[in-house]
Design a protein that fits this description.
- It is a single chain.
- With 73 residues, the chain is an all-alpha fold.
- The chain is built from four helices and no strands.
- The protein is elongated, with a radius of gyration of 12 Å.
Length: 73
């Protein structure tokens, strides 16, 4: 799916962004957490924002949202 929509440079930036956001995080290797971050990165790239900084920002926003949803009220 991803290879159909994005060029090589964008796919590399997306992978780097995912790795940067998840690196050194206690839950950075948890599948659900990585998936949430990756989905936000993909949405960002689909909107045409494919720079590494833009993708990292999108991933970090997902990380904040995911943590807020997991915290008890």
């Amino acid at each position: 799916m991803i290879s159909e929509h994005f060029d090589t440079r964008t796919r590399i930036n997306m992978k780097l962004a995912l790795d940067r956001v998840c690196r050194n995080r206690p839950d950075g290797e948890v599948h659900g957490f990585r998936r949430s971050v990756a989905e936000n990165i993909i949405r960002c790239a689909l909107a045409g924002r494919t720079g590494i900084g833009q993708l990292v920002d999108a991933g970090e926003r997902a990380m904040i949202t995911t943590r807020a949803e997991q915290e008890p009220a």
